[in-house]
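[Q] Does anyone have a clean structure-token version of this?
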Amino acid sequence: MLHIKTPKTGRARRELKKIAPKLVETGKKTLILHGTKTSNVINSVLTEIYHLKKDNAVKYTKRNDNIRPFESGGETSLEFYSLKTDCSLFVYGSHSKKRPDNLVIGRTYDHHIYDLVEVGVENFKSMQSFSYDKRFAPLIGSKPFFAFIGEGFENIEELKHIKEVLLDLFHGQAVTNLNLAGLDRVYVCTAVSSNKVFFTHCALRMKKSGTIVPRMELVEVGPSMDLVIRRHRLADESLRKQSMKTAPELKMRKEKNVSRDVIEGKIGKVYIPDQQVGSVPLPNKSKGLKRERREAKTKGEGKTHVDKKPKQQDS
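[A] Here you go.
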């Protein structure tokens, strides 16, 4: 029989509990890897992506010769590292004559490759190349805004795919409430053509506007680069359906007899059973009488008075 190992210590149990499936998953971690050969541009890009996601990222500096995305058999080591570090996103950088300054961004489901986007980096500008007041520098771990400019993000398949991947990569943890003072950065993505996206990172500067809502100004803080889409692979249909499943505990139950209207809002129906007033017994019990007298009175009311004839005596 197959022997299943169980954790022996409390620390091992806690570590296994962290990576176990949850009803509400925590923020996604990103794995950053280097290929067999990388250029100075790719090294800078990977370092700055790690800096932008420093709270939820794992970076390996060792060269990986056996990782080949988009090739059969070349994703085994990538899935192993994803399982080892418990990362569901990865960024893989490489450089070759055929594909210079190459960047592969992908997602995993259950530590198996879900989808991939391969882009080429052009016109890269690092954070050090921008001069601005350091007081307005974004804080590490702050929640960002996203601005996607261009109709191609809604119509073209490649741009729609890279939009989903970039949102997953930089959006951070899901929150229910936001503090306006904590929103200090925005990622601006502009569709230059059908396969080219201009990506830049800006800081938000709040100024007085005379109203409650402040006036927002953008200060470019970097990094900034052009992403040229080279290849992309969508998720398999069966894997996509499996990843979209929702736990029964999280599904919203339908409210009975409740409807919603645009004008009146939430409308409910209340059902009241018919009241049989005529058949309801009405007690006639006086509280001032004693129990015996009350019972005798109720018995006397049920009988009718009959005159008895006197018996005739025999003469």
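[Q] Thanks! Anything notable?
[A] The chain has a mean pLDDT of 85.
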